[in-house]
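Record type: monomer structure entry
Structure origin: computed from sequence
Chain ID: A
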Amino acid sequence: MSSTPELPVSASSVTPEDNSADNLAVIARQAIVDEHRAVFGYELFDRSTASNAHSADSDAALLFNALSYIGTESLVGQKLVFINCTHESLSGGHLELIHPEKVVLEVPALPQGASHEDIESRRPVLEQLRRQGFRLAFSEQVLTPDYLSWLNLAAFVKLDMTTFPAEQAKPLVRFAQEHSSARLVAEKVESAEQHQLMASLGVHLFQGYWFAKPALVKAHTIRPSQATVIQLINLVRKQATTAEIEDLLKKDPTLSFNLLRFINSSGFGLSCEITSFRHAVMILGLRKLFRWAALLLTTSRAGGSAPAVGTTAVVRGRLMELLAAELMPPEECDNAFVVGVFSLLDTMLGLPMDKALESLALPQPVVDALLHNTGPFAPFLALTKACESGDEAAFALNAEELHLSNRQVNWAHLQALTWAENLDTM
């Protein structure tokens, strides 16, 4: 398929070196438009990997980042996502995590000189992807005799305007229309004349500099420690109970954030919002949870939020859970934990809290506490913060509002601190 187009150098451009130490997934997107110039979909490019160095791992990382992290809706919204693949990545288990209706897989031709047997040997994998519901896109090479056996698998055929002279456009388009039901996309369209030519031949989808240059999108990410992800993988491999897995998620705010963000992303394709860790584990199932954790492990980078921030968030969550247990039913204690553990998302992501919460489906009382300091959890959060800061006035005010004694609060705080300190050995 087409190689990653070069972006003009600008102040917003980011090189792989620039990005290595940041929690940013740097992705370039280029619109694919219809005859009315309305956006039909976006082709995504991994700007942290050289165009000649794509691998199964980099393909998986691009798809994972694009569909899992904060900024997803601004990146692709509800439009189709076109992803360049290697043949190795087409066999990857990461595709099990993606709703096939959301993604078009761009399948490259094999290296020049590939034998008929090599070409045919790839067909079973492509057929299986079609049975799974994925749509496949091929380059104009699928119209050549060597690749005709792939043509009936095509949902899209992309015609690179730089690979054939204008006089060959008409027979090429006519052949594609007569031998396939695939939709044609004219790509690398760089002039009005090229656009008018292809439109006159019945091509309805277009991509290229004439319409839009690739734009960089920086998706903020937070990653849990590799040790925590490995612990999750081990729990799944041992077929641990939902309660055991939920317990681990409650101990690591970055892990739980990533899971809720992923399962509620448009790429996962659910029609309902998942708001609890237990529900997320049950919906995902052990097999997909293992795939997700493995991808999270392989796509994670060194660095991330300071460990102290995560520890503080965990202490907040546990303290709020213990305090709520004195006054609320169990399900509300779970929500109290979520308020505490996500109360530092703005610090972890380097974003305002309202922007950080846009990527999560959370119960309204949780959102009210985090955004507006209102609702039933607000005094618990204020009391928890007072415990951290030593603000005696705020401590007294909120403890009195909740009808909790100093002894109850101090004992719960001590338990929360001990619980957080012992996480590595639990």
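Annotation 1: Residues 1-22, 301-306 have pLDDT under 50 and may be disordered.
Annotation 2: The beta strands are 24-33, 39-46, 80-84, 103-107, 135-139, 154-160, 183-187, 205-206, 215-220.
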